[in-house]
Structures are given as C-alpha cells and as structure tokens.
C-alpha cells in the first residue's frame, strides 16, 4: 500500500527520497526490519496472552529426554509469523503484482488450515486435530489455485529467445536485444517450462512428458503442470509440518530456504543475472523479494523465542503455512524442481516417516510383528533416541540446510 502511495506521490509531486521505494532491494530490507520488529516485540506479548488463556501444548510421552518439560508451552505461535509476513508485504510490496497476490492468498489459505487444526487440538481438546483428509483437501485446493493462475493469468509469462524458424510465423510481439556483438529476438510467452539442473539449457518442459502422444501434445502440458504443482505443495507443506518437532528446527531451516528463494526471485527477475546463470527471465518476479524478506524476518524473529528451550511453538498454524509458502514461491519462480535439493531437510524428514510406517506395516503383515528402520521417526527423533541433545541436532540440521542452499544455487550455474 505504501509502495503504491509513494509511487503516486513521486509521479505527481517532487518530494525528495521517494525514489527509494522504486528499488526492490530497499523495500526488501525495510520489509525484513519491520518483520523482525513485529515478531520480536509482539511475540513476547503473544506468549503472555497465550499463557493467560492457557493455550498450551499437550505433549505425549514418547520417552524422549526433556520432552515432558515442554508440557504447557504456548502453541499457535504461527499467528505472529503470519502477521510478520503479511503486514510488511502489504505495506512495501506492489500489491497489484499477481505473484504477490498469490503469495498473500497462499499465506492466508494455509495459515487458516493450520489454525483450524490447532484450534481443534487446543480448544476442543482433540489431540488428533483436523482430520488428515481435510488437510489434504486444503493443500490440494491451494495447488489448484496456484496451478490454474500460473497457467491462465495473462501477466504470468517467461521471456524466451525466438528461434529463426519461428520469427515469421509467431504472432507474439518480439523485442530485439543485444548481448555483446550478437543481436537476437525475445518474446514474453505462456509456458509450462521450469528450470531443471543437469538438463539441456537448464530447462524442462512439462508438456514433453506427453510427447509420446504425438500431435498437438503441448495443449495437455497444463495437466502435468497442475499435478506437479498440487504434489509439491502437499509434500512440502507436510514436510515442514513433520520437521517442526524440536525447538527451532523448522524455523531456522525455513529461514535458510527463504533467503535462497529470495535470491533466486531477484535474479530471475533481472535480465542480466538470469542470462548469466542460464535461467529463465520471469518479468515482475523480482517483486517477490519483498515477500521473501518478510518471510525470512518472521522466521528469524520467531526463532528468538522458539530456539532451545522454546518459549512458544508455532503449531500447525505456522508449519503448514511455511511449507505452503515455500512450495508456492518456488513454483512461481519456476524453481520447483530444485526443491528436492533446497528442501532436503523436509524431504528426508518426510521420507523417514513414510519408510518407518510402510516397513512397520509390511513386517507386521509378513511376520506378525512390526519392525522399525529407525529408533523413532521423524529422523530428528531417531537422533534424540541415540542420545544427541536436541540443540546439537538442530544446529547440525541447520548446517546441512545451508550446504543444500549453496548447492541449489551452484547447480543452476552448471550447464
């Protein structure tokens, strides 16, 4: 809102300093600062309020060291994370930008699903919370919204170099550009392409999955893209939810991922950097850096109270929203195929649960007694059972997360 106001004032009045709001890096920096202020200052007040209302975590005794000491710790702290994201975004981002609108919808949508789950657990005293099928419906619903908007909205395009054989037949306007002494034409087009490392030109077209059908297979690319979008949002959202099991793990890991996504959004929206990294240039996507700044600021600010020993838990209000945000953000900047690397912590945590449950059911059916691969799942509980202190587990997972983030950026440069 302030961005649009200052744009208007700059256009009609010569007020010094208003040009600063035209710079994405400035607005992203201010967004981080405001987000940190909101989460740290008002986080304390939220903790006191939740204590007063006796909104505490109900802990099941799983035999983990120090676990029962967390009984009664305030939960639903994800509310302050959501506010720390939404308020700076609404103030400093261009809220007419379709990417920003989609991210606001994602934050509110998944935050509402998580809040409903926490509400049922805390106030209805139902430890199971919202039924799993309803969570999946919410995740799939968001995937459909994001996928359909990405495919059909006229302002969501990518810039491609026009090949010589289509210059005379293309109806899309072309722009002549220069790189060194070379001249070439580009055009902004709708596309089902995404960046994929170790693949030709670092690009993968979902429509090519159906190439075996022959004919005009491109028109069916939407369905593949939609399926991938729904799957990624569901998987990452659940992965973040499962990772949120010990103090500061999901919050710190998400902050690292958010920084990486913010960098990728900025370079994807910059023609020079996108060309250097050999990734698609996505017009107007750099505006997402303001949202990424608010997201990182919220995670870091919340970590002030969520680090060991945690004074507050984010609950599903925060973890489901964080996962949905990360997945949707990656899809919008066409980097969703990098998620297995970037979100490797979430992936391993999720897979450890799937493996544990599947193997237990299989061995119980075959041998009459269920057996386990890990001492306990998710993976961080396995290490707790082995005697590692949770602060050490979290720190090492953070280090791995930073290494994965660096690897994500490096793979983009590989050709």
UniProtKB/TrEMBL annotation:
Localization of this protein: Cell membrane; Membrane
Record field: transmembrane: 20-43, 75-92, 98-116, 136-153, 220-237, 249-268, 288-305, 312-333, 339-362, 393-412
Keyword tags: Cell cycle, Cell division, Cell membrane, Cell shape, Cell wall biogenesis/degradation, Magnesium, Membrane, Metal-binding, Peptidoglycan synthesis, Transferase, Transmembrane, Transmembrane helix
InterPro entries per the UniProt record, alphabetical: Glycosyl_transferase_4, PNAcMuramoyl-5peptid_Trfase, PNAcMuramoyl-5peptid_Trfase_CS
Record bears the keyword Ribonucleoprotein: no
Top-level taxon: Bacteria
Pfam families per UniProt: Glycos_transf_4 (PF00953), MraY_sig1 (PF10555)
EC number(s) per entry: 2.7.8.13
GO molecular function: transferase activity
Named cofactor requirement(s): Mg(2+)
Pathway info: Cell wall biogenesis; peptidoglycan biosynthesis
Family of this protein: Belongs to the glycosyltransferase 4 family. MraY subfamily.
Protein purpose: Catalyzes the initial step of the lipid cycle reactions in the biosynthesis of the cell wall peptidoglycan: transfers peptidoglycan precursor phospho-MurNAc-pentapeptide from UDP-MurNAc-pentapeptide onto the lipid carrier undecaprenyl phosphate, yielding undecaprenyl-pyrophosphoryl-MurNAc-pentapeptide, known as lipid I.
Protein name: Phospho-N-acetylmuramoyl-pentapeptide-transferase
Naturally occurring in which organism (per UniProt): Pedobacter riviphilus
Gene field: mraY
């Amino acid at each position: 809102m302030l961005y649009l106001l200052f744009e208007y004032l700059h256009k009609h009045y010569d007020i010094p300093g208003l040009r600063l709001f035209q710079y994405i890096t400035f607005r992203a920096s201010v967004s981080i600062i405001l987000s940190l202020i909101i989460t740290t200052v008002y986080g304390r007040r939220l903790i006191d309020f939740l204590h007063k209302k006796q909104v505490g975590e109900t802990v099941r005794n799983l035999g983990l060291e120090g676990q029962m000491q967390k009984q009664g710790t305030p939960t639903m702290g994800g509310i302050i994370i959501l506010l720390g994201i939404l308020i700076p975004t609404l103030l400093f981002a261009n809220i007419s930008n379709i990417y920003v609108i989609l991210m606001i919808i994602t934050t509110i949508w998944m935050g509402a699903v998580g809040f409903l789950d926490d509400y049922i657990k805390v106030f209805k005293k139902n430890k199971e919370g919202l039924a799993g099928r309803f969570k999946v419906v919410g995740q799939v619903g968001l995937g459909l919204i994001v996928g359909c908007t990405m495919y059909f909205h006229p302002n969501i395009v990518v810039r491609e170099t026009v090949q010589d054989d289509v210059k005379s037949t293309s109806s899309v306007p072309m722009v002549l550009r220069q790189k060194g002494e070379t001249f070439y034409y580009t055009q902004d087009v709708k596309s089902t392409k995404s960046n994929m490392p170790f693949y030709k030109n670092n690009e993968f077209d979902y429509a090519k999955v159906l190439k075996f059908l022959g004919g005009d297979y491109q028109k069916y690319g939407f369905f593949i893209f939609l399926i991938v979008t729904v799957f990624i949002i569901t998987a990452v959202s659940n992965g973040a939810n499962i990772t949120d099991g010990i103090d500061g793990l999901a919050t710190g890991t998400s902050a690292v991922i958010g920084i990486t996504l913010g960098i990728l959004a900025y370079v994807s929206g910059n023609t020079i950097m996108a060309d250097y990294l050999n990734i698609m240039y996505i017009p107007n996507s750099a505006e997402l850096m303001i949202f990424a700044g608010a997201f990182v600021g919220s995670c870091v600010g919340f970590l002030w109270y969520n680090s060991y020993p945690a004074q507050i838990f984010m609950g599903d209000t925060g973890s489901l929203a964080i996962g949905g945000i990360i997945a949707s953000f990656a899809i919008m900047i066409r980097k969703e195929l990098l998620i297995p690397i970037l979100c490797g912590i979430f992936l391993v945590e999720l897979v450890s649960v799937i493996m544990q449950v599947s193997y237990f059911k299989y061995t119980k059916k075959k041998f009459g007694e269920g057996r386990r691969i890990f001492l306990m799942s998710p993976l961080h509980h396995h290490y707790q059972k082995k005697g590692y202190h949770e602060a050490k587990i979290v720190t090492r997972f953070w280090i791995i997360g930073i290494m994965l983030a660096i690897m994500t950026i490096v793979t983009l440069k590989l050709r």
